[in-house]
Amino acid sequence: MRGVTKSVTLNGTFGGVKKDPWGNTKAGFKLTGTVNRKDYGINWSKALDGGGFVVGDEVTLNINVTLIKK
User: Fold this and answer.
1) Secondary structure (DSSP) of 5-69
2) Which residues contact 51 (CB under 8 A, 6 or more apart)?
3) Domain-by-domain residue ranges, the chain?
4) CA 32/CA 8 separation, integer angstroms
């Protein structure tokens, strides 16, 4: 992000392998993790009138991946 490259460790879950109604073999995975946006130079935020900020520092990543066998 913003020209910064860092390694990020994600937790992965294997969802299994199945055939869809058209006979295609598919495998599913779910990846989760967090990154701190300030580690990538994204520092903008705005204070709210009632306290707190518009944007938090921690960003949660939820990634769903489906692979289809060729």
Assistant:
1) ------EEEEEEEEE-TTS-EEEEEEEEEEEEGGGGT-----B-TTSSBSS-SEEEEEEEEEEE-
2) none
3) 11-68
4) 11
Burial 27-36 (b: 16+ CB within 10 A, else e): eeeeeeeebe
Residue 32's nearest CA partner among 6, 16, 10, 13 is 10
List the structure tokens of 61. Answer: 């990543």
Tokens 């992000």 appear where?
Answer: 1
- pTM of structure: 0.73
Q: Encode pLDDT of 8-62 as tens digits.
A: 999 999 999 999 999 999 999 999 999 998 988 888 877 888 877 777 889 999 9
